[in-house]
Amino acid sequence: DVKVTQSSRYLVKRTGEKVFLECVQDMDHENMFWYRQDPGLGLRLIYFSYDVKMKEKGDIPEGYSVSREKKERFSLILESASTNQTSMYLCASSPGTDNTGELFFGEGSRLTVL
Amino acid sequence: DQQVKQNSPSLSVQEGRISILNCDYTNSMFDYFLWYKKYPAEGPTFLISISSIKDKNEDGRFTVFLNKSAKHLSLHIVPSQPGDSAVYFCAAILFTSLIFGKGTTLSVSS
Question: Which tens digits make up the pLDDT trace of A70-84?
Answer without folding.
Answer: 999 999 999 999 999
